[in-house]
Specification:
Blueprint: E1 2-8, H1 15-31, E2 36-44, H2 45-50, H3 52-64, E3 67-74, H4 90-108, E4 112-116, H5 121-130, E5 135-139, H6 144-150, H7 159-174, E6 177-180, H8 183-190, E7 198-200, H9 214-223, E8 231-236, H10 246-255, E9 263-268, H11 272-281, E10 289-292, H12 299-303, E11 308-311, H13 322-329, E12 334-337, H14 341-350, E13 353-356, H15 364-372, H16 374-388, H17 391-410
Helix pairs in contact: 1-17, 4-5, 6-7, 13-16
């Protein structure tokens, strides 16, 4: 088979792309060495000019794994990105993506187009109509129309939202497979299309990198003045007013002041200034929390300091954040609120943490129980991550999907 993973405007060197796409493709190639893997990457033209050296490094890295990277310069201006695609931008995107991908499909005899996110899908569905044997995998990652409402990019009554909902139905109806990260995704998308074909494939984590290290735990705790018997609740990721709102964590921290266990909070985030601003407003002192910015390679070291992972959202969302499987790989039980619907599903399915239904009415005994059982839970969390979310296991699932699609084509 010839399989082309296709992305739109996402920077190839971002930690998410490296872990969720590049490392996954490498693992898939090892599992299925006789198949040919391509990465079609639309990149802003200024990126292809000013980051040429980095792109050459990425290309070399992929080539060493027998994966062919094809960079396609995009004429989209810098203000237009993956998360800011309004209805009037669609013709511009289509005119760039359709002829380019069609040409690449013909030249490279591509059998399967694996499309990450929404903007690239319009062209690939059109190509599927032209190239009858082409198979399309729709990999939405998140519900783009609803995500854009939460992110303040448009409203439910806007033209952009209505257009994207129409296109979403088309994508679901005409794709050969739609990837659902958890069953919450299936339930969400089935409201739009009862005929769509779904395969549930969770986010992946590199369990070799995300692994507990006692030396890092001891050294970093000592450096940051954290005692051995002090319980650390950790949050990993960005903070902002839309999804992971620091106000939610501030209120949770205040509730936990009554917890009769010596504890502190750790935030591993690039948004330290925003966090400090909110916490100052809520009179939360620096003795109650630590905040650090960490390079991706250092994140597992800081997570080794922690005992329990956190993921709360102010508004309901179907996602299972990548941080969920990263916490579990580190052996951290996870506490989420019911708004994080995908993560909630994972916690309840595998019994690896706690789901809080109401953050304004927390039973501290439930929190205490998780803390007291953390040693037993830690082993279980690591096992669940290794068996269900490791990059190798997720790559196996994708390869299985590709093989099934290829068998359908043969028959």
């Amino acid at each position: 088979m010839n399989i082309a993973y296709t992305i739109w405007i996402e920077w190839l060197d971002s930690p998410i792309l490296k872990s969720q796409v590049i490392e996954l493709l490498k693992a898939a190639k090892k599992i299925s060495p006789n198949d040919h893997f391509f990465l079609f990457a639309f990149q802003p033209i200024y990126t292809t000019i000013f980051r040429r050296k980095k792109l050459r490094e990425i290309n070399k890295n992929l080539k060493n794994s027998n994966i062919r990277l094809i960079i396609i310069p995009s004429l989209m201006p810098p203000i237009i990105n993956l998360f800011n695609v309004k209805w009037y931008m669609l013709p511009i995107i289509f005119l760039q993506t359709f002829p380019t991908i069609l040409t690449l499909v013909i030249i490279n005899k591509i059998d399967i187009l694996h499309c990450r996110s929404y903007p690239i899908m319009l062209a690939t569905i059109a190509i599927k109509k032209v190239m009858k044997k082409s198979k399309v995998v729709f990999d939405p990652r998140s519900p783009f129309p609803e995500e854009s409402i939460i992110g303040g990019r448009w409203t439910e009554k806007s033209i952009s939202h209505k257009v994207w909902k129409i296109l979403e139905r088309i994508f679901l109806d005409h794709s050969d497979v739609t990837i659902a990260i958890t069953d919450t995704y299936v339930k969400h998308f089935k409201k739009m299309s009862s005929s769509a074909n779904f395969e549930t494939v969770p986010n992946n984590v590199d369990t070799t990198k995300f692994s507990f290290d006692q030396n890092h735990r001891s050294a970093l705790r000592s450096r940051m003045g954290i005692k051995d018997n002090e319980i650390i609740f950790v949050y990993l990721g960005s903070l902002g007013k839309h999804w992971n709102n620091p106000i939610v964590y501030a209120k949770f921290l205040i509730h936990l002041r009554e917890l009769d266990i010596n504890h502190r909070f750790l935030f591993i985030t690039p948004n330290i200034l925003e966090l400090n601003k909110v916490f100052n407003k809520y009179n939360i002192g620096t003795h109650e929390y630590c905040a650090v910015f960490a390079n991706p390679s250092d994140v597992p070291k800081y997570l080794s300091m922690a005992d329990v992972g956190l993921n709360f959202m102010a508004k309901q969302d179907i996602r299972m954040s990548i941080k969920t499987c990263e916490y579990l790989a580190m052996g951290l039980p996870v506490i989420v609120n019911s708004n994080v619907m995908g993560a909630k599903e994972i916690i309840e399915q595998y019994h690896v943490g706690l789901v809080l239904e109401d953050l304004s009415n927390i039973n501290l005994e439930d929190i205490k129980e998780i803390v007291l059982k953390k040693m037993q839970l830690s082993v279980k969390c690591r096992k669940v991550a290794y068996e269900n979310f490791s990059t190798t296991e997720i790559a196996k699932r994708y390869v299985k999907i590709y093989k099934l699609l290829d068998q359908e084509d043969q028959t």
